[in-house]
Design goal:
By secondary structure, the protein is α/β, with parallel strands linked by helices. The protein has 2 domains: 2-185 and 370-386, Rossmann fold, CATH 3.40.50.2000; 197-368, 3-Layer(aba) Sandwich (Rossmann fold). 43% of the residues lie in helices and 17% in strands. It has 15 helices and 14 strands. The protein has helices at 19-32, 71-77, 84-92, 107-119, 137-154, 163-171, 197-201, 223-233, 252-261, 276-285, 300-307, 321-324, 337-349, 351-368, 371-386; strands spanning 2-6, 36-42, 55-58, 61-66, 98-102, 123-126, 157-160, 179-181, 209-214, 240-245, 268-272, 288-291, 312-315, 329-332. It has an 8-stranded mixed β-sheet, with helices on both faces. Strands 11-10-9-12-13-14 form a 6-stranded parallel β-sheet, sandwiched between helices. The N and C termini lie close together (9 Å). 43% of the residues are buried. The mean pLDDT is 92.
Length: 388
């Protein structure tokens, strides 16, 4: 198959563990399986820089990068406007067997929808949880009224990460027969890692317990909730540190103010964005992982934590609840400080429970969440649509 992947930004931009990370790994596996993969994306790398090249071939993936208007505005509002892509799509859309759209409310998806309709090329949408209305409700509502509802309605198939995302699609009047559940995956980490490097770099004593958060510094990630709970934990366990790993987003200034308010600067480490071995070192030096989000569709960071044998604590609005609860970690209500405090204390007090969740989490990844397995599921969706 000749497959076009459309996404607002892509490798080697700072992808984190979101849609770009998922699209890259799916594309790489599809190339291994003999498909021709072309990606159209913006040239945004991060809030301050743009990629200098227009075309690259990474791991057999043919990627075209298009100039983005207003790089800071693009990142602050998650709106990557790429006018030159309009011309390219008009010329090339009809060449593809199928088009795979990543994210939902994007400039690129509007253009693809227009030309795919003209040339009758089937497309699927993998929204990665972005159909939720937790923030910027008015802007999202306007988008949905003007074009979003038609974009979803005309898609041949919608990929949901979990049953929670199926419910989001159903709320938007998508019939169940058009929805396929395909979770995200995770690659195997094969680096020779040594414990102690992360703690050594950030001057954390070996006898100190370490709790880890990985994600962008955004309100939706529940960081204030985490810090208020962590403050309570210190009454019983003063010898605990919290590492917050992730790129700065629109909550960073408030986060530092909250840390100052609770006088926690000696107990909380803000590392900024980490990737590769530096990130893996954070996982192997930590005791367990906490992601207390207001909403999270299917966070790769939770799967990464499980792959390293870390028990996890997540909130009930996390798309991974059905996999994690009472198997690889603890689920709490968002903003229930007593519940989160008690969950953290439970793990700090019970090494046998940590060991049980650790073993279960590693087995979970091996059995269900490899990229090979996930990509086969994606290929099956493609084949159903184009009847090969």
């Amino acid at each position: 198959m000749k497959i076009l992947q459309i996404i607002p930004f892509f490798y080697p931009a700072k992808m984190g563990t979101g849609p770009a990370y998922v699209a890259y790994n799916i594309s790489k596996e599809l190339v291994k399986n003999g498909h021709e993969i072309i990606v159209y994306t913006s040239n945004s790398s991060d809030t301050d820089t743009k990629l200098s090249f227009r075309y690259r071939n990474f791991d057999g993936i043919k990627i075209s990068y298009f100039d983005t208007l207003g790089k800071k505005i693009a990142w602050d509002n998650r709106l990557f406007i790429t006018p030159q892509m309009i011309i390219k799509l008009r010329k090339t859309v009809k060449e593809f067997d199928i088009i795979h759209l990543h994210d939902y409310r994007t400039f690129q998806n509007i253009i693809v929808w227009f030309y795919a309709k003209i040339y009758r090329v089937p497309y699927i949408i993998q929204a990665h949880g972005t159909t939720n209305m937790e923030e910027k409700k008015l802007i999202k509502y306007i988008f949905d009224i003007i074009i979003g509802n038609r974009l979803l309605k005309d898609a041949e198939r919608l990929i949901a990460l979990s049953t929670k995302e199926v419910d989001l699609y159903k709320k938007m009047n998508i019939p169940i027969h058009k929805i396929s559940i395909v979770p995200n995956g995770i690659g195997c980490v094969r680096h020779n890692l040594t414990k102690g490097n992360f703690k050594g770099k950030y001057k954390i004593n070996n006898n100190e317990r370490l709790i880890l958060f990985v994600g962008r510094i955004h309100r939706i990630k529940g960081l204030e909730f985490l810090i208020r709970s962590f403050y309570n934990v210190l009454d019983s366990y003063p010898n605990v540190k919290l590492a917050i790993v992730g790129p700065k987003d629109n909550f960073y200034d408030q986060l530092t103010n909250i840390i100052d308010k609770y006088k926690l600067t000696q107990h909380i480490i803000l590392t900024g964005y980490l990737e590769g071995v530096e990130l893996y070192n954070a996982y192997i030096d930590s005791d367990f992982f906490v992601l207390p989000s207001i909403y999270d569709a299917f966070p790769i960071s939770v799967l990464e934590a499980c792959s390293f044998g870390l028990p996890v604590i997540i909130t009930e609005n996390n798309g991974l609840v059905e996999w994690i609860e009472n198997r690889a970690g603890i689920v709490v209500e968002y903003d229930n400080i007593n519940q989160l405090t008690n969950a953290i204390l439970t793990l700090l007090n019970d090494q046998s429970l940590i060991d049980e969740y650790s073993d279960n989490g590693k087995k979970l990844i091996q059995n269900y969440f490899t990229w090979e397995r996930i990509t086969k599921n994606i290929e099956f969706v493609y084949s159903q649509i184009i009847k090969i």
